[in-house]
Amino acid sequence: MKAAELVDAGRFELRDRERPAPGPTDVLVEVSDVGICGSDVHWYDHGRMGERSIDEPLVLGHESAGQVVAVGRDVDRVAVGDEVAIEPGVPCGHCRYCRDGRYNLCPDVEFMATPGTDGAFREYVSWPAEFVHELPPTVSTREGALCEPVSVGIQAVRRADLDVGDSVLVMGVGPIGLLTMDVARAAGAATVAVADIVPSKLDRATDRGADLAIDSRTEDVGDTLREEFDGGVDVVIEATGAPPAIEAALDAPRPGGTAVLVGLAPGETVPMDAFETVRRQIDIRGSYRFANTYPTALSLLGANEVDATGTIDVEMPLERIGDAFERAKTPDVIKGLLSVN
């Protein structure tokens, strides 16, 4: 089978590998579509993530879907011929976090496209059946691949305890931000504002229904929201990981509001006005990956509550993976997708 291996920063090689065979509780998926995530681009650019580096070739890609072509002897969850989305993290199943349903916090999770666990930029993936989800008839594999970023948005909205009628600010309208907008609407948000530094992304968010678009290069996000929403918004979801955006996100909730941090900022220190945070009783919550979200993501996609494919700007075959990554790095691109089979 063909597999695109990242062999060094900025360099993929397309290589032949042996097609995997599923174990007793696994399924073999012929991969159709794989999204390009910001973390994939980071690995591609730097050859490392934090303290982890590429010491041997690594297959990236953790947003994937395809068709089941073989199942292990103990599998009855899906069948050959089913189209499925692959949930990319497999937790230990035994630790305190797994036992209470928060398996996204499992310290021993095996997550696709990280050293030691290859991702889906290859023709076939063998994966535990428990983390393979059948697509509804109305959901394509292109949409199914994007269950992963939709799930990030679902997790963030759940962490926010968003209520019907709430006002929401989404900081950063890349793929996570745009999809989180849709999820927030589906959860009952009455008003959704967005902030970004790229005008074309703000235009895209407005076209998708944002009620207010703030160019944070020229406007103070907190002041604008306090003026527009009588003291600030109920919920802020920060989806960039950029320190200035995180700082603005902490200033934007109304008294008693909530700020949810989704974007990763490895090694960064962000100043916080502790007095104002306490005085205004702001809840600050982290949201890491996702748990128990794929069924909800598929339901939202099937009901057209979330427009996942509308985020795709670049689509290329696996053989052009280098070109796709270079294009995905440009500021005007929201999402790239690779067609594998």
TrEMBL record:
InterPro entries for this protein: ADH-like_C (IPR013149), ADH-like_N (IPR013154), ADH_Zn_CS (IPR002328), ER (IPR020843), GroES-like_sf (IPR011032), NAD(P)-bd_dom_sf (IPR036291), SDH-like (IPR045306)
Catalytic reaction equation(s): L-threonine + NAD(+) = (2S)-2-amino-3-oxobutanoate + NADH + H(+)
Cofactors demanded by this protein: Zn(2+)
Molecular function terms from GO: amino acid binding; L-threonine 3-dehydrogenase activity; NAD+ binding; zinc ion binding
Entry EC number(s): 1.1.1.103
Keyword line: Metal-binding, NAD, Oxidoreductase, Zinc
Domain of life: Archaea
Domain Enoyl reductase (ER): 5-338
Coiled coil: none
Key word Signal present: no
Gene Ontology BP annotations: protein homotetramerization; threonine metabolic process
Pathway connected to this protein: Amino-acid degradation; L-threonine degradation via oxydo-reductase pathway; glycine from L-threonine: step 1/2
PROSITE patterns recorded: ADH_ZINC (PS00059)
Keyword match Kinase: no
PANTHER family (UniProt xref): SORBITOL DEHYDROGENASE
Assigned protein family: Belongs to the zinc-containing alcohol dehydrogenase family.
Name by which UniProt lists this protein: L-threonine 3-dehydrogenase
Organism, as annotated: Halalkalicoccus jeotgali (strain DSM 18796 / CECT 7217 / JCM 14584 / KCTC 4019 / B3)
